Each structure stands twice: as C-alpha cells, then as structure tokens.
Amino acid sequence: MLCDIIPTHTVAVWLLESIYKILDWFGLRHDKTTEEIIYVAVIVLLALAIGWLLKLAIVWLVRKIIAVKRPNTAALLTQYHVFTRTSRVIPPLVILTLLPFAFTKTSTLLDIAERLVWCYTIIVFTIALTSIVTMVWVGYNNKRNTRNLPLNGVLNTIVGLIWIITAIVVVSVLINKSPAMLLTGLGAFAAALMLVFKDSILGFVAGIQLSQNDMLRVGDWIVVPSTIANGIVIDVSLSAVKVQNWDNTIVTLPPYTLISTSFQNWRGMTQSGCRQIARSILVDTNSITPVSDETTDQLATRYPLLKPWVDKTRAAGHNTFDPGLATVNGSLETNLGLLRAYLCAYLLDSAAIDHNQQILVRTMAPTAQGIPLQIWAFTATTAWTAYEAIQSALFEHIVAIAPDFGLEIYNEESGKDAVSPVSVSMLNAGSDTSSTTSTPSAKQ
C-alpha cells in the first residue's frame, strides 16, 4: 500500500543518481558494495528525518487544535507519549519501501535486513498500540468507572496478550514460518507456560470474578481473617491487591487469595450510613431482684424516659402483650427488666442512634460470670471516632446508673477484692488480742 502511495521507484532512482554524483565528486570508483552502504545510510537518515518531521507536525497539531477543544484528551496523549511512539513506526516503513532498490533480488543480505526491519516495525507498532490501549482504558476508567472496579488487572491482561501475539509474530518472521504453524508447535510448551504464568492466570481469573460479582472496589474496607490485612483497598491489579492497614502499613495479597478464602467487606456498612453496636455487659445474677410499685415509681420519677412506658404497661396489664409496646422491651417484675425498658427508651430518644434500624436490649444465656445484657442498635454515623465515642458513652452510662436499679456489674476479683471486710476485722481483732496479752509480761 505504501509503495502505491509513494513513488518509490522515482525516489530510489533519484537517490542512486545522487550517490553516483557523490562518488564522482569525491573521485571514488563506482563499487557495488560502496553504493549499497551509502544508499542504506541515506535511506536510514531520510527515514529518521521523515519520522522527526512528522512527530513535530503532530505535536504542533495537538497543541493548536486538540489541546484547545479537548484538554483532557491532549493531556492523556502527552502523558502516555502516544504521538512520540506512533511516529516511530514511520521510519521503518520508509526503510522497507526503499531498501529493495539497494540490493539485488537474490541478495541474502537483503532478506536478513528486511526481516530485522520487519521485527523492529512490529515491536515499535506494539509499543504504540499498548500506549493507545492504556490511554483509552485510563480515560474510560476515569469517566465511566463510577464503582471503582478493579480494572487494572484486565488492562494488564490485554497488554500481556498483545505482547504474546507480538512475540509469536516476531519469531515467525525471523524463522520465516507461518504463525499458525508456530502455534501448533506450542502445544507441548503449554504446560511450561502455565507453570510460569500461574500467578498471572490465577490473578486474571480472580480479577474477573471480583469485578463481575462486584466483590471488591478500590476504597473498600476489607478484613481477611487468614491474613493481617485489615484496612482500605488502595490498588487492585493482575498480580496483587494492596491494602493499607489502619496502622498505615501496606499488605499485598494475590487476588486469588480473596477468592479461595473468605473475607469481610465493610462497604455495605459505609453505604448504609449507620454502624452496628452489638456489645454486652455482665450483670451479677445475685443482684437481680423483684421490684415493688413504690420502687418502680421512684425510678420512673428519677428517670423521666421510663415513666411513659411504666404508665402504658400498667394500663395494659402486666401480663398483657401489646404490639404497640414492642418498641420498648422490658419488664415491671424485676430491676433488670426496668433497666432494659429504660435503656430502650434511652436509645429511642438519642439522636446519635439510627431509629430506622433495629433497636434491642436483651438478656443472653446466663454464664458463670452473670447474665449478659446486650445492646443491639445502630449509630447514625459510620465515622470511626464518632462511633466509638457514642458506644463508649452508652456503656459508661449503663455502668453509672446500674446501682440506682439495684444491679451490680460483674467484675473479676482483684487483690483488693480478696481482702474482705470480715478479714480486715479479724486481723484487727487479732492485733488487739496480741497487744493485750503482751502487756502483763511487760510489767513483769
């Protein structure tokens, strides 16, 4: 095609005549080898000059036209050196067009030179093609990838396939065989290739599964129990998933690790705008007692949030279930039931708690340390600092008001607890006795 566009024969004749004149001007004889060397040098210089001028023209065109109308596209073209690498394809094409006129048709040197130039052309073309693919992919990723899908692995796979095809074509050109014949001979080599590219193949498959099932995005908070990864995903590629832990360390995982093992993604929590509180506090079983109406009235007076529930429950009857009371779960029978009712009302009244989510205060199965009283609620924020502050304030409040309900929070005995008041009184009594018996002997 290029030969049809450019009058190669006319250019070649003009170059040969110019070479004859140069030889005559220097007084050199017309030697075939000398003419071939000079001709090859001239066409190489001519090809480089054409490529350089073409690159200048394209760069000028980009700056004058594309940069004004599409600045983002121009920035990507410059960033990935698209025009610089594309212009490198022109010189070898010029050389291939003019090179046959320097040698005879049966020249072995011509055949070798053409194969080498073709290989160079294919490699340069592949470099330019990968730059264009990368630029287009990055532009698409910046505009369309609103879900932050891990597309870098797919891009790396495409680039890798392009280079594999290029390698096959280059080898076929060098050995002068069809690429199809070369591919048929690679069957025995497939096992070795799969072993060498095992991680890349597994990473590619895992990347497709992660992307297709929307299991992982850049910016997600993930926890991988089988590893030390617990933080934000900062990059997903064909061979690695990078997670920045909360201590700012970077953990690198193979993508197929996330497929072969389970991991926890906290994206749903972040998108919901609320975060769960599911923490228990142990109540000493011996401190749970029945309560009288007088005690109930005193607690309702001291804690106004409790009074509406007490009045409604008494009006409905102690043993009557009213669905309207299900939002506040408690009991008038025991002090622990009153505390549950108060905590439910407290959570429903708090602006820090999301009232659209489940709110529950319940007792769990008794243990040797006491009865666990669990708070099940959701904060109205997902910010870590605010979440911890709300949760801490809630349980500090429970510990502070538990004695008012006659309840004791279980705590492991320490050295201070081991010395009981009875033991202290016995020690004091023993010291008094010893001092009394020692007085007469002193008088003697």
Could you give a short account of the major beta sheet? 5 strands, antiparallel
Could you tell me the mean pLDDT? 78
Give the oligomeric state of the chains in this entry, treating copies of one chain as homo and distinct chains as hetero: single chain
Q: What best-fitting shape do the alpha-carbon axes yield?
A: elongated
In N-to-C order, the SSE pattern is HHHHHHHHHHHEEEEHEHEHHHEEHHH
Q: What portion of residues belong to β-strands?
A: 5-15%
Can you give the helix content as a percent range?
Answer: 55-70%
The total number of structural domains is: 3
Give the C-alpha Rg. 42 Å
- The tally of helices reads 19
Distance between the termini: 135 Å
Structure classification:
alpha+beta
Quantity of strands, as a count: 8
* Contiguous uncertain segments of 5+ residues: 1-8, 319-326, 434-444
Strand order of the largest sheet: 4-3-2-1-5
